[in-house]
Write a structure and sequence with these properties.
The chain is mainly α and 321 residues long. The chain folds into 3 domains: 49 residues, no CATH class; 174 residues, Orthogonal Bundle (MetI-like fold), CATH 1.10.3720; 64 residues, no CATH class. It contains 14 helices and 4 strands. The strands form 2 sheets. It has a two-stranded antiparallel ribbon with strand order 1-2. A two-stranded antiparallel sheet has the order 3-4. Strand 3 and strand 4 form a beta hairpin. Helix 3 runs parallel beside helix 7, helix 3 crosses helix 8 and helix 4 packs across helix 8.
Length: 321
């Protein structure tokens, strides 16, 4: 009896139950909510119409395609940059290795949204510091750099996430036996031949694992697609989900939706300006967007009624029709 009931078993069982509760329960709740025919939180008959409506939307497949392209491009840049730095620090006698490690750890501590905003402040078409300097220096009428769009998303995300492959590949290079490379060079093989025939083959399992990791991280990334993709009309899965939960339900009249939100006091969560309801919330992203890229129409105004008053609802991010 004591063989099965000891403190190790109790500890492992407790950890397992906590992990299951934090992972499985939210997934089950999300699946159950997706099968309901009414608003979230209400008990309504189960249906699969939500899935039919979602998968019959053409924008979903475009978002999936954009997400794959974005993940592959950003993952290739981050993997190449991180692996190269890991190879320099672990397999060569380059100086200032400690500086490289400290730089990687510093980049790891910087939030992704702050990193993205910094690139916007540098490369924004009209207000970017680098673009302003280049226009004054060379007389350009616009640009010349524009971080908004798929190419900017890939470059910014690839540079931002280089620390993930660096940390994993550095550990893999460190654990590799250098005698195999030394034997190859002693046998007369050159540096590149040794790399492709020895180093690359030894690192292939770790490279595939890290490549899969950075690809998945690209699929779930939100900060870069939200700040650089939405203003340019480039939507991925994460931004599609974000915009979908901000829209009123398609089968609920906008008037009823706004009245319900106004009564409950939750209208501010939708970044709306409703002076008659006494709720004024300033959209942070809208203010930032109008400052950094004023040529992009980010404000969508739509006539609605709240407590019999005619008002304008203003959202901080664009809503496509």
């Amino acid at each position: 009896m004591r063989k099965f009931f000891n403190w190790d078993t109790v500890f492992l069982s407790s950890i397992t139950l906590i992990v299951l509760y934090l992972t499985v329960v939210p997934i089950l709740v999300m699946i159950f909510g997706s099968l309901q025919s009414g608003l979230p939180g209400s008990w309504t008959p189960l249906t699969i119409n939500n899935y039919i409506e979602a998968f019959s939307t053409p924008s979903l497949y475009q978002a999936i395609f954009n997400a794959i392209i974005y993940s592959l491009g950003a993952g290739a840049i981050s993997f190449s940059l991180g692996t190269y730095l890991a190879w320099l620090t672990e397999r060569t006698n380059i100086t200032f290795k400690g500086l490289i490690y400290s730089s990687v750890l510093s980049a790891l501590m910087i939030p992704g949204v702050l990193f993205t905003i910094s690139w916007i402040l540098l490369l924004s078409p009209r207000a970017g510091l680098i673009n302003i300097y280049l226009r004054q220096l060379f007389g350009f009428t616009s640009g010349p750099f524009d971080p908004f769009g798929m190419l900017g998303m890939i470059l910014v995300s690839g540079i931002d996430d280089f620390y993930t492959p660096f940390l994993f590949m550095a550990a893999a290079f460190r654990s590799m036996d250098p005698s195999m490379e030394e034997a190859s060079i002693t046998s007369g093989a050159g540096t590149m031949t040794t790399f492709y025939r020895v180093t690359f083959r030894l690192m292939l399992p770790a490279s595939l694992a890290v490549g899969l990791l950075v690809f998945i991280r690209g699929l779930e990334d939100f900060e870069v697609p939200a700040l650089l993709g939405i203003p340019a009309g480039v939507y991925v899965l994460s931004t599609e989900i974000f915009l979908a939960v901000r829209r009123p339900p398609g089968d609920l009249p906008l008037k009823d939706f706004l009245e319900a939100e106004c009564r409950s006091g939750n209208l501010g969560n939708h970044r709306a300006l409703m002076p008659e309801c006494g709720a004024f919330v300033q959209g942070g992203l809208a203010e930032l967007s109008s400052t950094l890229f004023p040529t992009v129409p980010l404000i969508h105004s739509e006539k609605a009624t709240c407590h019999n008053y005619s008002t304008d609802t203003i959202t901080a991010l664009p809503i496509r029709h």
